[in-house]
Amino acid sequence: MHSGNQRGSGRSACLETRIGRLRLKNPVIAAAGEHLIDAAGIRSAILAGAGAVVGKSTNESEAAKDQLTRAEYVALGPDWRPVPWGPDAPPATLLTRSGLTPLGFDDWLAQCVAMDRFAARHDCLYVPSLILAAPEPAVRMAKAVEAAGLRVLEFNIGTPYASQAAQGAVATELSPARVGELTRMMVQAVEIPVWVKITGQSERVPELAAAAFAAGAESVVMAGRALGLLPDLDTMAPVLGTSCGIGGWWNLPLTCHWLATSRAALGPGHSLIGINGATNGADVARMLLAGASAVGLSSEVMLRGWSVLEEALATLEAYCRDKDLTVADLIGRAADARKRFADMPVLDQHWKGFIPAPLSGAMTENEDD
Ligand SMILES: Cc1cc2nc3c(=O)[nH]c(=O)nc-3n(C[C@H](O)[C@H](O)[C@H](O)COP(=O)(O)O)c2cc1C
After folding, report:
1. Domain holding 334: CATH number?
2. CB 46 near ligand 1, within 6 Å
3. What is the pLDDT of residue 2?
4. Is the CB of 297 under 6 A from ligand 1?
5. Does ligand 1 come within 6 angstroms of the Cβ of 103?
6. For the chain, what is the domain count?
């Protein structure tokens, strides 16, 4: 374990990264979730050393707030059975049905301002997050966020839940044209950088990202979780009763694929934030190599606690030291080394090493034997 004085700005400069015009002291972002509803949770993420902390999102929808009172969470082991919630859980899949902050907008904004001040003292960026319900209230709230002096805005238009939640509570935008329109609306409303969080429930993630950047987004956060349904063998009903947001460590390669394909489509000059499936510092490095300039961790921190952030930073710093590279050097290296299938060498019956031995009797050609 590293000592407390390595927290925050005490870490080495090799971890610095840039998201558009903003500098982060390191690329580890504590991403929104229930553990970042209360000020004490937000302060904990800041004290754990995160480069940025995204607070729990809000919008104007009462249905979205109400949803928090119906929210449920379960950690699942590799056999899809529940495992105890907490730091000792095995590598877990999280099945959740979440809602938005219980705070009214004025209280939420006051909390954002206080958290931004606390974050600034620790060289951390506090990121207020709005989830789209309807366009006009989103613009009004964004202007209030800017007027309150906040330094950046995350605009989530890709929650997993739109098809399952009350109508108009949250959005899952699937069309590049609409992503462009909504991003432009926000970018024209405020001068602070706008980070747009997009859905992963699409085969068009790079096109959604391209549309957001073309409309002026300073970063695109990719990508939101999928929906899943898990039948319970005892009750024969869905676990938690509904389709739910589903995520876990296994999502990492899917996110890395979206990062790499987006980087290939857009070029290296765009600040991508990787999210969905990072659980530790090695995963942060993997997402950086796939093209992210910073990486969000949410479920793993909510499940296991703030030490996930501290350990991610320590691991990432050790990795950079071992490789004698900075975070900036890592960004996109695996993405840029990615080949196409036809570029790969011809191998001699390589596939035969990957199939099971035939059953006895299966080698004969005579069906009568
Ligand atoms: C219980 C829970 C609550 C969440 N709440 C929010 C939220 O308020 N705003 C938001 O933008 N994302 C929210 N997310 C999404 C996470 O920030 C993140 O995008 C997602 O969980 C994938 O990353 P992970 O694998 O690190 O968890 C939530 C996720 C979970 C599991």
Report:
1. 3.20.20.70
2. no
3. 37
4. yes
5. no
6. 1
Query: How many Å lie between the centroid of ligand 1 and the Cα of residue 355?
Result: 39
Contact 294, 19 (CB under 8 A): yes
Task: State which residues form the domain around 283.
Answer: 4-354
- Give the residue ranges of the chain where pLDDT is below 50: 1-9
Cα 154 to ligand 1 centroid, rounded to whole Å: 13
* 109 inside domain: yes
Residue 232 lies in a domain: yes
Q: How far apart are CA 12 and CA 317, in angstroms?
A: 8
Residues contacting residue 355 through CB under 8 Å, at least 6 positions apart: none
CA of 339 to the centre of ligand 1 (A): 32
- The Å distance, Cα 18 to ligand 1 centre, comes to 22
Please report the atom of ligand 1 found closest to the CA of residue 71: 1
Residue 359 lies in a domain: no
Structure confidence at residue 13 (pLDDT):
84
- Asked if the bond preceding 342 is cis, omega within 30° of 0, the reply is no
Q: With 0.90 as the threshold, say if the pTM is over it.
A: yes
In-domain check, residue 197: yes
Distance CA 269, CA 145 (A): 27
